[in-house]
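Note to self: user wants both folds in one dump. Writing first protein now.
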Amino acid sequence: MNVKSVKKIGLGLLSLGILGGLTACGNGSSASDSNKEDGKTLTVSVDPGYKDYVNEIKETFEKDNDVKIKLIEKDMFDQLESLALDGPAGKGPDVMMSAYDRIGALGQQGHLAEVKLGNEADYDETDKAQVTYEGKVYGEPAVIETLVLYYNKDLVDAAPATFKDLENLAKDPRFAFDSETGKNTGFLAKWTDFYYSYGLLSGYGGYVFGEDGTDPSDIGLNNQGAVEGISYATDWFQNVWPKGMQDIKSAGDFVSQQFMSDKAAAIIDGPWQAQTYKENDINYGVAKIPTLNNGESYQPFGGGKGWVVSNYSKNKEVAQKWLDYVTNQENQEKFFEMVNEIPANQKARETAKAKNDELTTAVIEQYETAQAMPNIPEMGEVWTGAENLMFDAASGSKTPKESADAAVKTIHEAIEQKY
């Protein structure tokens, strides 16, 4: 889930960061009236940052299918949120993109059409899970993303490989936090944000929903493993990190500021932060997140975006062809080349990895250990219920077990009330 989707879903909806900082362009009134089309026009809505890419590849599709692509520039989340009204009114697009974590709910609500995976052989099980809800496929995977480790090459010789390495950084006097005796910023992670801390809890055996993220009655955020992960994080919060790391709202800014001022040697963050560090001339490297002390991999959420078809479209057959076309190897390689986001198509992903770009390689390798973010509607209650999961333990107001139990109780109650 890109961070932007996470924030939309958890906080107003959610939390995952801003992928590209794209702003809305256009409004619902500019979209094509699908009900009035003659079948010769396919209306495609994308973020403004994807406009050049679609214009680059559309000509071949238009010729092969005797159809005209009408391109609408509109913020992805605005488009998804307006679909429920614009679709029935005949003003919505035929095709658009969706954050993976929205696809299940939109499909369940009847707003997205069921589709087929035209390039199914090029997806792994995680990719397929991102666009599947209750056995039905509502989109074709397009983009992958997940958290990675950034490290400052001027401060460390190589990427830390284990959490023991990170613990050693936290003992390095170069990273002592001047205003708080005994505190250290050698390694930082915004673990008060559940999106960031989930990989830790999951690596120790915690989970959101059972049955591959599809059983909301089975919440494993307070099992023995999850509590062990929370306890480990609590030690960092109480004995290593400055007090500011407990601030749910500002901890992310604190992490970035420390990294950009050479006060942190390694941090966990998302690919959306790379441009900021580049613009600030940080000599950074990117790698897979280090191995946990139990020998397991950090298992963050794997997110991204897929192409979807409006269930209100009168051009579903052509829309399906567009999905197959835009997600094939050639066009996914072009996507990476022009947009610099990592393609979901496995063959195109390997081409991207062969470019030997550290960020691309790190995301691809980390994604192999990532867990598909549950895309069932009940996931919205997890973001709200787990908001204070780590803070309550870090602040000492609850024990790790009490904090976990309270969060799970809140999530269960919210699901029972709403579903």
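First done. Writing the second protein, which came from a different request thread.
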Amino acid sequence: MKEQKQFFVLDPRTKLLLVFVEAFFVLAVTGGDRLYWFRILFAVLPFLLLMASGRYQTFAIGVLVFALTEYMQKYIFPGLHGAAAVIMMVLILLISRFLPAFLMGSYVIRTTKVSEFKAAMERMHMPDELTIPMCVMFRFFPTVREECASIWAAMKMRGIGIGGSKGYEMLEYIMVPMLSCSAKIGDELSASALTRGLGISKVRTNICHIGFHAADYMVFALVIAGCVYWISGVIL
């Protein structure tokens, strides 16, 4: 995985909390109108974290998709009617809800080392039955992405693609190797994790330095304030 400069680093436990918040409050729209500004804040947060961590390409693509969605919602959707309006509304809702959660997941996976995540899970006293599969997952998606790029480049050289003369063969010559590579990568990463001793019952030493800093406390305070505000509205 390519290392890039980060202006500040969040603890892996804080990143897991942010993933949960994105899924529970932004994606599921928990709290309704009462937490509207809370959701807006956490919908923008993944963009800021990606930019601060040096993932400028992902940040630019996310901003472009988000801006395009807002443009469609304000200028294109009001002029549509019938089935086209329904399709556009569903598309806008899906992007506006899934995009922040997707970008937050991308940020967590790209900025968290497996050893850091393992150390954080050990601090939380999580069982290895949960920790090891998640450690494998942190290496699975970047590896699959690299394999996908290689397969796509090989097929492009042979004129097989969406816009090529053999576009109808894309499903067979791209998707089938991708599925096969995914299964193989999962097995190899699982074996690698066990070879490194992630499955032993004894306490492992770790040289990773993790811990909470000012940014982590700010995130926790913001999440707690939002939860308290939401629960107070439910009770009262």
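Dump finished. Worth passing along: Residues 1-112 form one domain.
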